[in-house]
Amino acid sequence: MTxxxxxxxxxxxxxxLCKRRGFVxxxxxxxxxxxxxxxxxxxxxxxxxxIKEYFWKSFIADRDDVYGMSAAILMPARxxxxxxxxxxxxxxxxxxxxxxxxxxxxxxxxHAFKHKSESGSAGYxxxxxxxxxxxxxxxxxxxxxxxxxxxxxxxxxxxxxVNFKNIVDSMHPKLPFGIGQIGKAFRNEIAPREFLFRxxxxxxxxxxxxxxxxxxxxxxxxxxxxxxxxxxxxxxxIKKENLRLREHAKDERAHYAKNAWDIEYNxxxxxxxxxxxxxxxxxxxxxxxxxxxxxxxxxxxxxxxNKITPWDIECSGGVxxxxxxxxxxxxxxxxxxxxxxxxxxxxxELAPIRAAVFPLLRxxxxxxxxxxxxxxMLKKESANWRTGxxxxxxxxxxxxxxxxxxxxxxxxxxxxxFETLENDSVTxxxxxxxxxxxxxxxxxxxxxxNIC
Length: 452
Ligand code: GAP
What we know:
seven-stranded mixed beta sheet, 34% helix, globular, binds glycyl-adenosine-5'-phosphate
């Protein structure tokens, strides 16, 4: 029996599971923690890797028209002047005249409500909104005189645009073509909140897809990538009813966007929230970088000889938001064998561990030796899988081991028992149903391989 999810507290249950089971920790926790910064533990880093791997495969590796790249995080201030971020990448911020906390203007009602419920009085005042720039700056260089201002990239996008010429000159692609990338971005968010949802250091996965600068072409590819991205997101194992596409109103669009749609996830903590954006950036970035750097960023059409500045259709997703939404979707409480349990109903391809191997009893050397044999065989085999590994577990009784593996979303638990010693068969337990069946050891690699 699956219990109804009580939505308000699902997020706090996930935060606690993530810490308890080694998925995600508060950044620099032993020093009091750094707001909006998180560290991924052994299982979280695997889940995150599996999501990124899936993005890389779908948007880049499987396609002939997309190249991958990895640009640096540090970029000179001039890049961000050109991209418009120095001037326009801002949030309006107000100061509460009671507690002097600085908050985003759109959160002032919520803040006033908090004061009201604490003290019962009304009539809160905020200062006039000021623009607050989200870029995170740094200085590079060993002396004050020669040091230069740089920024940690506020979006990974600009690393692609500034390399447009390098990719064209080295790979000679034909339009339309794309450049994909995954990497860290940094934003001085005024109110980092909701765990991995709004962080100051986070990861993005993006595609910049350059097309002929014609209305029809732009519209065609925008539709194509909007639908492709939506299908991709549902394939993370998220129910269609928990995802939707929403068009940005004109005044909501980023400064570079001619058209913008979000894929949103229906979160238990705050309703529909942005997961992934599809943006029609037109020729904004290439034009501006051409102008500010002096480099020739036009593309010469090999058939007509025409020099053009392509338009860019962008797909941009947050890796950490995908991790969070996949966890929220997978988190399940049910009753199995009369006991309440928690399990992560992760898609097997995304699970950090694909199979756990147990000897039934840890004090029977013959069972441990046979279990080691099976474990070593599967571990070797796992080198051929794109995602997911194999784990050894002989801690506590079998029931406890199942609970532990359920909580980290391991699809299969394999137990080596006395019957194994007689006929080379093992027990395989299914995470979602708790059902067990006997399988020949020789069949195991096939069963586990079929997952991806
Ligand atoms: N290059 C376009 C771009 O950066 P964006 O809408 O600002 O567009 C794209 O960000 C995606 O990055 C978002 O859909 C979201 O998933 C993720 N993202 C943005 N800010 C974030 C933050 N502070 N913490 C975690 N993820 C964030």
